[in-house]
Amino acid sequence: MARHPRLRHDPRFLRMDRGHVNRPQKMTIPDEIVEDIHRIRDEWQSRHLLSVYLTCLIEAGWRPASLSRVIGKSSERVRQLRISDDHVDQSLEEYRQITGLTLPVPDPPRRAPRSGKRGRRRRPARPETLEQLRALHDKARRYRGGKGNRDEALMFSALVYYAHISQGASLEAIADDIGISRGGLQSRLVRYGYMTTTGTSNAYRKMTGLQGRKRITHCKRGHPFDEENTRILRTTGGRICKACERIRSNAYKARKRAASGGDS
């Protein structure tokens, strides 16, 4: 894929935009979704189940910023929990049968279009620019530091800024055409130095060469993340402490035995 000839030579792409990040639209999450997310977090304690459910909600149109207020994490953390799986709907249906949870995925409320002089122009980017952005997006969103997918992440951010500044495309229109949230694009432009913000969330942390983050060697209960005590998730590459997993499993079985004994 050919790179845009002006990205490396135009000095505007090396300057920081003086605008500030606007907050994304707030959505009210239905009570049934909030209840199921809390049960997944407190009762089942399954990160993969939470990732599958959040992925289905995001793909249905619910904003990560609204979901982040439910789980008590940042919107960037919600986007990191999103998984790339063509069979995520099938996985959600299997979890419904296993857990007995309804796990609803309703359509989000649609915002009425603005009218009058105060309305925002949702000017889209050029088709050839959108084609390049879609091709780069899958690898760019997987970049977490190091060398893997670094060029794609840098190119994607520069191309978004080019479409926004030079082509006059709105970030909302670019986000809708790519299939992500506007807040995700804004936080990316902040991290890569194209925009500024007064926010203090980790979603706005500046990108560095090696991310500067030390690898965690022990879980929150103090168990070591060694070869014998660590299980690697195939979907996200995350690490699971086997000792903590046994503790949760035993606690769950104890609750089930206590519940069955109380019924009899």
The major beta sheet can be summarized as:
2 strands, antiparallel
H and E string: HHHHHHHHHEEH
Q: Strand-residue fraction? A: under 5%
- Our Rg estimate from Cα atoms comes to 21 Å
Assembly type of the chains comes to single chain
Explain what the structure shows:
With 264 residues, this protein is mostly helical. It folds into 3 domains: 11-18 and 125-204, no CATH class; 31-99, no CATH class; 230-263. It is 47% helix and 2% strand. The protein is built from 10 helices and 2 strands. The protein has helices spanning 31-44, 47-60, 64-71, 75-81, 88-99, 127-140, 150-165, 171-178, 182-191, 242-263; strands at 230-232, 239-241. The protein has a two-stranded antiparallel ribbon with strand order 1-2. The longest helix has 22 residues, at 242-263. The chain is globular and about 70 Å long.
Which terms would index this structure?
mainly alpha, 47% helix, 264 residues
Task: Give a quick summary of the entry.
With 264 residues, the protein is an all-alpha fold.
Topology:
Layout: H1 31-44, H2 47-60, H3 64-71, H4 75-81, H5 88-99, H6 127-140, H7 150-165, H8 171-178, H9 182-191, E1 230-232, E2 239-241, H10 242-263
Antiparallel strand pairs: 1-2
